[in-house]
Amino acid sequence: MRKLKTSRQPEILDAALAIADERGLDALSMRAVAERVGVTPMALYGYFRNKDELLDGLVGRLLTELAPAEPGGTWQERLASVAWATRRVAREHPSVFPLLLFRSSVTPDGVRVVDAIYQALLEAGVPEAEVPRIERLVSTFVLGFAVSEVNGRFSSASNESRARRGGQDASAHRRLAGHLTVDDWDAEFAADLDDLMRIIRPV
Q1: CA 69 distance to own-chain centroid
Q2: Rounded to an integer, what is the distance from CA 137 to the centroid of its chain?
Q3: Where does the pLDDT of residue 165 fall: very low under 50, low under 70, confident under 90, or very high at 90 and above?
Q4: Which residue spans does the record list as DNA-binding (predicted)?
């Protein structure tokens, strides 16, 4: 297998991310990225063998923004740092962010993020045998919240639509009608994280 060049990979990934942010993931192609960078499509294949490798590179590019910048702080602060960074990245790159759910993140950047969570959980006193399971719990919550938020699943219109379509079967929706609208998603996310921290501690 031929060795890929790496000198311009960061520039190429930045260009790919910009295209996806501006025009959506469907508009991302090797040709479009080559045009943005100012090289021929054939030259681009010297850095990424195909579009799949380019998408994997984008996953790594997003993951670089998630790992805690500083190793210090309590385990709660470090977990919260990863969680808030994940939500910020989802808001900044809503078209690309779902790739984190569907593509492998077994890259150096992905390993660093998961390792940071492992370290925090170990410091929290989670038994070693339970750490991988609790990491999956934390990651599933954070990724799910972030994707749901940017995709509009949490909107009040979505709740109202479900209530209308449910008809007589939506009695709980009608009972909770005064509580379905959230005015401050930052506060809800913070409260959810606090609940998660309380679950983690006595595991």
Answers
A1: 17
A2: 14
A3: low
A4: 29-48
Q: Among residues 202, 203, 191, which one has the least CA distance to residue 83?
A: 191
Give CA angle at 126 (124, 132), nearest 5°: 115
Closest CA to 135 of 117, 158, 120: 117
Alpha-carbon distances of 36 from 22, 138, 162, 185, rounded to whole Å = 12, 37, 42, 36
Name every residue whose Cβ is closer than 8 Å to that of residue 47 and which is 6 or more positions away in sequence.
Answer: 4, 5, 6, 8, 9, 12
pLDDT (tens digit, 9 = 90+) per residue, 57-92?
A: 999 889 888 876 666 789 999 999 999 999 999 999
* CA 116 distance to own-chain centroid: 15
- Domain architecture of the chain: domains with CATH: 9-49 (1.10.10.60), 67-200 (1.10.357.10)
- Sign, Cα dihedral of 169, 174, 179, 183: positive
* Dihedral sign from CA coordinates of 157, 97, 111, 14: negative
> pLDDT digit string (tens) for 33-65?
999 999 999 999 999 999 999 999 999 889 888
